Amino acid sequence: MIGLLICCGLWPTSVAIQILVPSATWQWAWFTVAHLVLHVGMSLWLIFALLYTGRDHWLSRPVLGVIVGVGSLSIIARITNPRHRLLWDEYQLISEPFVHLLATPGPLFWIRSLPLYVGLFIGIGAVAHMYLRSRHLTRAQSVSFFVLGLCLFVISLLRYLLPLPAAGLEYTALGSFVFGGFVAWTLLYSRLFVVAPLARDVALESITDGIVVLDDSRQIVDYNEAAQSLLPTIESETGVAFETAYPTLARTEATTDRATVTYENRQLTVSETPVERAGQLHGYTLLVRDVTELEAYASQLEDKTERLDQFASMLSHDLRSPISIARGYIELSQETGDTSHLDRSVAALERIDETIEVLLTMARHGNDAGNPQPLSLSAVAKAAWQTSETGETRLKTALESDRIVADQPRLQQLFENLFRNAVDHAASEAAADELTIRIGNLEDGFYVADTGPGIPPEDREDVFEYGYSTSDGGTGFGLAIVDSIVDAHGWSISVTDGATGGARFEIRNVELCEPETEASSVVDLEADGG
Q: Which residue among 72, 158, 221, 311 sits deepest, i.e. has the most Cβ atoms within 10 Å of its Cβ?
């Protein structure tokens, strides 16, 4: 670029000196210098255009040898022209409209000019092709070079086609002066060439993450296709400060160098790197990455970790009653010698095994409904009652519609926890003996109500949270397990006051089945210690 700019300055300067010197000898000398600079400049233009447009692989040693060889031959022919007169046949001074040299082309003039025009056209074509391929800032760069390069050709062509004043004058040198001046101005005072052209643009496009380039005033000057897919409006925001165009993504004092933000329903991380050269800040590069899937996966891992933490607590909580029941019947069998009590112990131990399986399922799969099938509410409630430590508490079921679709082990676990919750929250042992639990129908589900102390209204939203309990000795896991089972089935649960006091848990959005018999199911059970 520097060599090309020097040539763009020396060529018109040589032509200007040629006009100012008085003698034909000196004008011829400077005429020769001007054409030597022209040959060097055209070679540099071709090399620059290929490098600028990312075609540096074209500049192999043979190609560079041809460029240097043709240029050298043209320079030698130009210097030795007074001997062979193949490039210019003769020259003379013309006084109108001012004193200038007029050289008559020789037989090899156009052959010598052909490589110059070929190099000019290859450079213009490469830049034009880059314009068609580029989308944003490099378009402004490429169109500038294309127009200025084309102007050089048009001015050169008009010199031979139109009867211009001072016909022997190199008007094309004026075009090169304009070209060099424009490029120098943009390099010194404009940011038009701050961002590298196609060669770097191609590298940006190969990156799957979004790349946004800002200048030193934080205006958007370039971006790749990935950034455009993440920020659809970025094309219209080119030249605008990034903080103005995307305030939610902009760097602030509160964010880190790599912050995660939500933008148009996506989770994006934005990391910023300053672009410096020789200790001077030139701009910033923003790496914009879509981490929506990663964030979702991280959230799933957090959920699994939380479920595993809850698993240990739920395991000890849900195994407490079956273990106590099994121990009690084993001791009773030992005291009385009646082995029939062992059957109840075996049932409790089998319930422990089922509970472990259910809790493992909850830990591994979270809100998984298991294997929902049509079943009897009263039958599952009775099975739960037999494996629950309920003392003298009575269970009543009044179910006109007894069959629903649910997973049997998890529904039994739901009843066990509701039964235990009612017994554990009874005010005293005497109150527990007088406690009655009732199961009944709702239009779209069922309820479980007790005659205990109930749940205060201010606690009803919190009782389903893990670890929350309204009693001093409570673990806070029973109702949380109930809530997870309800969620797994797609049901809903709420707490209200019972008809005769106490708490009433209403479970709705339950899939009901046709009853197997027309008779209502009314069961009154009294537990004798289990």
A: 221
